[in-house]
Amino acid sequence: MSRRIVQWLDNRLNLSPIRVALLDEPIPGGASWIYIFGSITLFFFLLQMVTGMFLSIYYSPSTEHAYVSIQYIMDEVEFGSFIRGLHHWGASGMMVAIGLHMLQVFLYGAYKKPRELLWVVGVVLLILTLAFGFSGYLLPWDQRAYWATQVGINMVGTLPVIGDVLIRVIRGGQNLGAMTLTRFFALHTLFLPWLLMTLVVLHLFILRRVGPAGPWDEARAARTREPFWPKQVAMDAVAIGVVFALIASLALLVPAPLSDPANPSDTSFTPVPEWYFLFYYQLLKYLEGPLEIVGTVVLPILFFLGLFALPWLDRRQGRRPVSRPIVMGAGAGFLLVVVTFLGLSFYEVASLPTSDPSVLRGTALYQELDCAGCHRIHGEGEAFAPDLSYVGDTRNRNWLFQHFRDPQAVVPDSDMPEYGLNDQELNDLTNYMLTLKR
Amino acid sequence: MNASEGEGRRTFLGWVSAAIAGAIGLVMGIPLVGYTILPALKRQKLSWHDVGPEKGLDPSSPKEMDCIHSVTDGWQKTTTKKSVWVVKDERGAMTVFSPLCTHLGCGYRWEGTQQQFYCPCHNSYFSVDGKVLEGPAPRPLDTLPAKIENGRVLVIYKEFKAGTAKKIEL
């Protein structure tokens, strides 16, 4: 049946040449598992696009409603937590996939003539993806989002001469607020997707014109040639299936975080950027005073200029890693710096005290109301009422909040008294309960 | 490898790709459809709203009373004010009418001199007990669940589809 439909369409639209162009591109040296990362990156982009479009059905880009709309997606909308989880973990997955893709291209010297343009467009795609990550981080409008973005934008301000103007342009005004949120939303959901899509098409177009590089061993490359379809496609598909299973499990098991609503007056919050900016964040800690500008401006510019210029810096023929010691050394050095700083940063972030003020207030409230008179947490307190040691695993935010407000409305025969807490106290107690996890 | 063996292998690899694509499509597709559709199909929990005191209701004149109720609109809670028509008959039984004409949903009013409800949009007339007297209205005025507690009139506010002979809750 499907064959007949394809035949029918082919007779009218002459599809065969397109199929040849898309699927029959010969791969020197044959299909290989080392070539899967580009397809995985593309898959992640499609996943982000689909989940992002669906998230925008319920999201509201206003400082008043952004947070509650995300809360609504997480607690009320069927599969909402799963879809947002896919988008959250998909962003991280895309970064990993891009990293591995670039590493493979770097190792194989696949950026060399005649593939310089392919590499340059790829670097632009990397920058766009980072911009996606940065602009998307603000949208939930929680404390993490607000303060991390505050820091990120202020770094731009260290640029000489144009820094001050640039900060205002990025913020959309003097302060980080409603104008910032709408521009970040527009950037994240309209401008960047179109730009990225266009460049992905260009990236693939160049790839199809110039052809994949294949193994660095030219004799091996010349020995066999295999079309993209079906073996490489099947390998890519298997890899994508595994990666998707991983991301979907993460989305189910580890919900995307949502801290307290953004509060510009609460300066006790320690902002930490998303992990893919962490090594850079760590690096900046060591560059103080006059050196700061080296970290915020000089190094990033040099880094990206170096990436763009790579095909012209490494011009010698031959793609074997052993015959390119300087480039390989530089690459390894960069990786070492990234991994070291990332490790250091993880270590420091992990040792940060739980400084969420809401959780601290909730803990105090728990003691003040003598909840331990009935409840038990890790052996402390009486056992008349349910044990709360892992209550964060079994109850969601909405349930806890409603239950504290009016226990009998949620559990009709509950003995729990109604304490008449105000919204802030209800929220604090709920936040404390949500930290009680396995 | 002979030609048919190679062809078999190619077909198999094609199936592998298609099966994985299908599985991902399914794992994504079902949640996405549910995510989009299910919240839209949820019904609001209806509750009783105090619209005013029972005292002062007069059998000869229906009274327009304000029903202020909070509506959960997704992540937004809003308070809306609707008026309802409360009628008490001679025997003391109370009826509460939805404020929307059953023809096309215009607001109607009480004409005291003619002792009729009148909808100015398309000239529908209703008697004090809601029956259609004249005009295009396809059914009597819609009654709302109502009760009296501690001297207060309580109402559940609902809306119904306009223009149908049957009363269909929206």
Keywords summarizing the entry:
heterodimer, A: mainly alpha, Cytochrome Bc1 Complex, Chain D, domain 2, 2 domains, two-stranded antiparallel ribbon, 19 helices, 66% helix, B: 170 residues, alpha+beta, Rieske Iron-sulfur Protein, four-stranded antiparallel sheet, 1 helix
Description:
By secondary structure, chain A is mostly helical. Chain A has two domains: 273 residues, Cytochrome Bc1 Complex, Chain C (Up-down Bundle); 78 residues, Orthogonal Bundle (Cytochrome Bc1 Complex, Chain D, domain 2), CATH 1.10.760. Chain A contains 19 helices and two strands. Chain A has a two-stranded antiparallel sheet. Chain B folds into two domains: 42 residues; 107 residues, 3-layer Sandwich (Rieske Iron-sulfur Protein), CATH 2.102.10. Helices cover 23% and strands 33% of the residues of chain B. Chain B contains one helix and eleven strands, in the order H-E-E-E-E-E-E-E-E-E-E-E. A four-stranded antiparallel β-sheet of chain B has the order 2-3-4-9, with no helix packed on it. A four-stranded antiparallel β-sheet of chain B has the order 5-6-7-8, with no helix packed on it. In chain B, a hairpin with a 4-residue loop joins strand 6 and strand 7. The model of chain B has no long low-confidence stretch (mean pLDDT 89). At the A-B interface, helix 4, helix 5 and helix 11 of A face helix 1 of B.
